[in-house]
Write a structure and sequence with these properties.
This protein has about 280 residues and is of the alpha/beta class. The protein is about 35% helix and about 25% strand. It has eight helices and twelve strands. The protein has helices at about 15-35, 45-50, 75-85, 95-100, 100-110, 155-170, 225-240, 270-285, and strands spanning about 1-5, 35-40, 65-70, 90, 120, 135-140, 150-155, 175-180, 185-190, 195-200, 245-250, 255-265. The strands form three sheets. The protein has a four-stranded parallel beta sheet with strand order 2-1-3-4, sandwiched between helices. Strands 5-8-6-7 form a four-stranded antiparallel beta sheet, sandwiched between helices. A hairpin with a 5-residue loop joins strand 11 and strand 12 (about 255-265). The longest helix is centred in the N-terminal third of the chain and has 17 residues, at about 15-35. The mean pLDDT is about 90.
Length: about 280
């Protein structure tokens, strides 16, 4: 296949520029090793290039396949047009947009994927009286860019201050999730592929902003990793992001709820195995 690869813009990799670049490069290497032709671009190079630069195949001057970690809205708009014209894209630009906090929350709840109780509000509205504390407040309009985009609030006054700050920063909506007690588990996977990696984050593990420490040290509560994989694959189907990562909380009774889901994360603890699985999925698709 003739494949175009698009790496993630650095502004969408807070504290993870090196890790995101590493998994992207590994996947491109795997695709080359499998015999595919790969043309690689940064987000900025892709969005500013003319169409004839991508004319590698006879599909109306478009490539056969695009492999993308992009998150810029202009880039995603271009890719949605290509997808509508028959180009196969992993992850789908629509899926990437689905992982923005508000649509992600709405889709997971609508499809009954296990997820915390949540509220969605405009930042110029009063905080709903039914919100419980502690809780998490997360910007609803985009992927997380800075630390202030995800905040933990233990009181109503704290939550009101967070919402006011988001409004001041021009963020139109906020998603509020109830805080779940239990073991925090991070996971990486590829939908409908045997590959799945999970672990308990520790103070020494890689983290964007260190918020995992709020759940404290994992107790090792028993749960079924196969059930977590099944739940994560269902979320991937609902959101249309076959290359995924996320966070879940395991409760004392062994039940699990997904609290975050990401399109194409860094896979830092399992990069080599993940790259092979991602390339395998792209070839199968």
């Amino acid at each position: 296949m003739n494949i175009i690869g698009i790496s993630r813009g650095t502004r969408f990799s807070p504290n993870h520029v090196g890790n995101d670049a590493a998994i992207y490069n590994k996947v491109m290497e795997e695709l080359l090793r499998m015999g595919h032709t790969v043309h690689s671009y940064t987000e900025d190079e892709f969005s500013s290039a003319s169409l004839d630069k991508f004319a590698q195949t006879p599909l109306d001057g478009l490539p056969e396949v695009v492999v993308t970690m992009a998150r810029d809205k202009h880039t995603l708009a271009l890719l949605m047009d290509w997808e509508a014209r028959g180009v196969r894209i992993t992850n789908s630009p629509r899926g990437i947009l689905n992982c923005v906090r508000r649509p992600m929350t709405e889709l997971l709840l609508a499809h009954k994927v296990p997820h915390p109780r949540s509220w969605i509000m405009a930042t110029d509205e009063p905080l709903p009286m039914e919100v419980t504390f502690p809780c998490w407040l997360k910007r609803g309009d985009s992927h997380v860019v800075v630390k202030q985009d995800v905040c933990y609030a233990s009181t109503r006054d704290e939550a009101i201050r967070v919402v006011a700050d988001m409004h001041e920063r021009g963020i139109p909506s906020v998603v509020i999730n109830e805080h779940l007690e239990g073991d925090l588990v991070k996971f990486y996977g590829v939908q409908d592929d045997p590959f799945f990696h999970w672990f308990y984050p520790s103070p020494d593990s890689h983290s964007k902003f260190g918020l995992e420490a709020i759940n404290g040290q994992a107790q090792g509560l028993p749960f079924d990793p196969a059930q977590l994989k099944e739940c994560a694959d269902e979320a991937a189907r609902v959101l249309d992001v076959p290359v995924y990562g996320g966070d879940a909380v395991v409760k004392a009774d062994g039940s699990m709820q997904i609290i975050d889901f990401n399109d194409w994360p860094s896979f830092a603890p399992c990069r080599d195995e993940a790259a092979r699985a991602i390339a395998r999925r792209i070839g199968q698709k």
